[in-house]
Write a structure and sequence with these properties.
heterodimer; A: 75% helix; B: MetI-like fold; 12 helices; 71% helix
């Protein structure tokens, strides 16, 4: 196990180093002059030269890669052209809101996806199985930004059942001020017992979280179905069945136990994909997170910010994959031998 | 096709209604893409024409899907959109296949240091969700469809490399390939004649599953303002442009978005069904 852990961690470090180099390549192939856009449209040649020197663009490539690497490791991820603040501290400010949204979406996806997958596997080929299959393909085919706009129009603008946008009702701040501890409003209002605020944050979460959940629900349901059907076909389960145990026992005791396995395997993947989907959804719901920050950076062509966000999400994805692999290896000795 | 061929195809489609549905719709979309300039009611509206006096009219007999913010017929633009993101997807998949399959076959066949270098580079690209890496590249490249195609292809090829490499490695170890080597046949010939044709089946399945995903990715990037620019009739761009008028003019966002959904759904149903038939063990994850 220790050998497996060392090998897996070493591989992750190599990949992250590669990811850093690739993000450097992205920030360095910028057509146009970053120094000029930094200095602004009316800058003189001298000001642009000063900006170039300030940004370190007048140094040789190898030196710049080295500096970039050292900067990334020491937490200096460059300065946003748009906000003129350090990119990493910008990301730190917006990340909690996105974490709240993605976790809410994944909870919905797990609560819906696992039972749906189990139901589909319980009666394969039945009407329910077909409906779930079509539904999951629909979820994977959905342009999330469009779904967000449609749901917002129907449930918020027309039916007025849910709030249009934002993380909570801004008026509540006066009567029930939020005690900020974790930067995540749902958690903050929960631990400080601020019930009206908690209600408001939860109601505001519904639409964006449902939209972000559309993709993972389908993926999780499909994975669970496939894994359970595989298990049900295996010899030991057939044995239990041939001994005359009722189908409920066969299913509940043996097949379901393995349903968690494929979910763990895709969890890192759906987490990363949901994170990227927030780039398309957050600005629609005025959600003050990483997605809104990324979308704003795209529209202002703020390369350092985009590269920073890209690096941030890629590192999270690599680490999430590492954690999932290690947990699976700890639970299933067969994986360590691969 | 012979008579028995047709009836066999008919039986197959009846037994697989999802493939049939997806296939018919996908075929229809391809057809629309081909004939769009000839059949759309207002061909000029698919381009730079503007009719400010006709702006933002609701759907009617003259304008089935209504008109947009500069008075262009939305129906014409949505039909013409079948030539934008699906064509981007076509080129993305073509580039990704050429690059991904070549590298995968080389890595799998030669093994050793070649394999190690190619696969570690592949790992780095796979560390990014495709939409994210494409977004980063599309941001630094000039905003047009060529950049969009390149940006998505850069993030798509590694999936095929990984898929082909495993297959090629197993083919490389088979007796007939060893026999070829023993006969002194040059590597290039073995690769092209034996390893390549025997390694591409899983890629064919994966490509059919990926068409929908690439169209969604291209639309998403256009929605963010990367890729297609006005007046290109791109579905994602149309949704983005309609967003500001959406609360009062629902048709602007609804129809282009539906076009994206239906196209992605058709290709996903088709790919999903083909996967079940050709390779039942893989699951749709992207």
């Amino acid at each position: 196990m220790i050998r497996y852990v060392i090998r897996r961690v070493a591989l992750a470090i190599v990949v992250i180093a590669g990811v850093v180099i690739l993000t450097f390549v992205i920030s360095d192939v910028v057509p146009g002059d970053p120094a000029a856009s930094w200095a602004g449209p009316h800058a003189s040649a001298a000001q642009i030269a000063r900006a170039r020197h300030y940004l370190g663009l007048d140094q040789p490539l190898a030196v710049r890669i080295g500096k970039y690497f050292a900067g990334v490791v020491s937490g200096n991820w460059g300065t946003s052209i748009h906000t003129h603040r350090p990119v990493l501290s910008d990301i730190g400010t917006v990340a909690p809101a996105t974490l709240e949204l993605v976790i809410a979406a994944l909870i919905i996806a797990l609560l819906a996806g696992i039972p749906l997958g189990l139901a589909a596997a319980r009666w394969p080929g039945g009407a329910l199985d077909h409906a779930i299959r079509v539904g999951s393909v629909l979820g994977v085919s959905m342009p999330v930004f469009w779904l967000a706009l449609i749901l917002q129009l129907v449930f918020a603008q027309r039916l007025r059942l849910l709030p249009v946008a934002g993380q909570y009702d801004p008026n509540l701040v006066f009567s029930h001020p939020l005690t900020v501890r974790t930067q995540i409003p749902v958690v903050d209002s929960l631990i400080s017992g601020n019930w009206p605020m908690l209600g408001s944050t939860l109601v505001h979460l519904v639409l964006p979280a449902l939209v972000v959940a559309a993709y993972p629900v389908g993926v999780i349901a499909r994975m669970v179905r496939a894994q359970v059907l595989d298990t049900v076909g295996e010899a030991h389960v057939q044995m239990v069945r041939s001994l005359g145990f009722p189908e409920r026992t066969v299913f509940g005791t043996f097949a379901m136990r393995l349903a968690w396995n494929p979910v763990a395997a895709v969890l890192a993947l759906v987490f990363a994909y949901s994170l990227v989907n927030t780039f398309l959804v957050e600005s629609i719901f005025d959600w003050p997170g990483l997605g809104s920050y990324a979308a704003a950076s795209v529209s202002t062509l703020d390369t350092p910010a985009i590269v920073g966000v890209t690096l941030f999400v890629a590192v999270i994805y690599v680490v999430a994959n590492l954690v999932v692999d290690l947990v699976q290896a700890a639970l299933d000795p067969r994986i360590r031998l691969r | 096709m012979t008579g028995t061929g047709v009836s066999r195809l008919g039986r197959f489609l009846r037994a697989n209604p999802l493939i049939a549905t997806g296939g018919v719709i996908a075929l229809l979309i391809v057809l629309i893409a081909i004939v769009a300039p000839l059949v759309v009611p207002y061909p000029a509206d698919a381009g730079a024409a503007t009719h400010p006096e006709m702006a933002l009219q609701p759907p009617s007999a003259q304008h089935l899907f209504g008109t947009d913010q500069v008075g262009r017929d939305l129906f014409s633009r949505v039909l013409a959109g079948a030539r934008v993101s699906p064509v981007v997807a076509l080129f993305v998949l073509l580039i990704s296949c050429v690059v991904g399959i070549s590298l995968g076959v080389l890595a799998g066949y030669f093994g050793g240091i070649t394999d190690e270098i190619i696969m570690r580079i592949t790992d780095i690209f796979l560390a990014f969700p495709p939409l994210l890496l494409a977004l980063a590249f599309a941001t630094v490249l000039p905003a047009n469809l060529t950049s969009l195609t390149i940006a998505i292809a850069i993030s798509w090829w590694p999936w095929y490399t990984r898929l082909v490499r495993g297959q090629a490695a197993s083919v490389a170890g088979r007796p007939y390939v060893e026999a070829c080597r023993a006969l002194g046949i040059p590597s290039r010939r073995i690769l092209l004649r034996h390893v390549l044709p025997n390694s591409v089946t899983p890629v064919i399945v994966q490509v059919s599953l990926d068409v929908g995903g690439v169209i969604l990715t291209a639309s998403a990037l256009s929605f963010l303002g990367l890729g297609a620019q006005d007046p290109t009739p791109d579905w994602g761009l149309m949704v983005a442009e309609g967003q500001n008028y959406f609360t009062t003019q629902w048709w602007l966002v609804t129809f282009p978005g539906l076009a994206i959904l239906i196209t992605a759904l058709a290709f996903n149903l088709l790919g999903d069904g083909l996967r079940d038939v050709l390779d039942p063990r893989r699951v749709l994850v992207r």
